Amino acid sequence: MAEEQGRAGDEGEERIIALLEGLGWTKRGDIGIDVEYDYKYHPDRGNTYGVDGYMTYNGPYRDKERGLIIESKNVKWESSSPKKFRGWADDTLEKVEAVPESDDFEEYLNFGESRIVNAGILSVWTRDEENYNDETFQGYFDEINLHPKKRRKYQILALGNRELNRLASLHAQFQSLQEKDEVTSIDFFYPPRPDSHSARMPLVSLEYLLSDFVFARAEIEQSVSNVTVTRDVGIVFHFDDTDLESLNFMYQAVIEHGMEDVDELRVYIYDDDKDDIQMASVQEEFRNNGRPSEMTGKAPDLKLKTLRKTNYADHADTLREE
Q1: Where is the GAPS4 PD-(D/E)XK nuclease domain (predicted)?
Q2: 80-120 tens-digit pLDDT
Q3: pTM of the complete model beyond 0.90
Q4: Rounded distance between C-alpha atoms, residue 273 and residue 279, angstroms
Q5: Is residue 291 within 8 Å of residue 251, measured between CB atoms?
Q6: 101-124 per-residue burial string, b: 16 or more CB within 10 A, e: under 16
Q7: Burial class of 216 by CB neighbour count within 10 A (0 to 12, 13 to 18, 19+)
Q8: I need a surface site. Which of 104, 166, 242, 296 has the fewest CB within 10 A?
Q9: Which of 170, 135, 188 is nearest to 309 (CA)?
């Protein structure tokens, strides 16, 4: 049976799913599905679990495709409270624990595929953005200690306005680069690990969703003296504080992760509302006297660009219409 709220067309569910689809994830089945299961570790709740959405992706570093339970809340800030946030987080964990073990899940959402399903995303969008307070939001979740009923490891990722706006900005910029005539290929870049090679794919994995540095690599074609040449371009989407320490740390990560062998390095710095003069001064110091100036040998051409803020609700609504 479909979950009533979902069948009514909850725009919150549709928004987060549309954005994650844009970031390379796959929606499975329908939204707003009720899963029936008598989970013995949840004796104090009914046997109906309303699943807003179920999505999968086949990312790096794992042998199997990953499945995630998606929960969405579309709220007013004045009606939020630590108790409500705790309830949403607990409810999401219970669904991640119980739903994958049910026959309904296999029949209506997973369709018998072998996947790793041990994580969930709780998306909480505050409609009255002018009242949203990120410090308070983070405090709500910092105080939550989730306790799985079984001795297994689960991941629950909470996304508030700040995180959702960041992801919308990331997707908007990546999409813009994809559409440029000079760009012949572009993918997100996953550095090698001790037990795996590096990977390139048009996908933002769970681990990248909240990362301060998201890497990508592209190939572009440029005309030089009537000759078309191909240039390798490294891309960093920079969401950390815009200061010299952060930029130097980012550049060190570029070197350590094998991104310094490109012809050009573009760093898209997220607009964090600092004064333009302050931003320009920090960037000039980084470029001339920071970590790039210490490079031995030929360093890539460095271009610092601004990653403009994109509103999550507006951007996701556009994706829903496409």
Answers
A1: 1-150
A2: 888 999 999 999 999 999 999 999 999 999 999 999 999 99
A3: yes
A4: 9
A5: yes
A6: ebebbeebbbeeeebebbbbbbbb
A7: buried
A8: 296
A9: 170
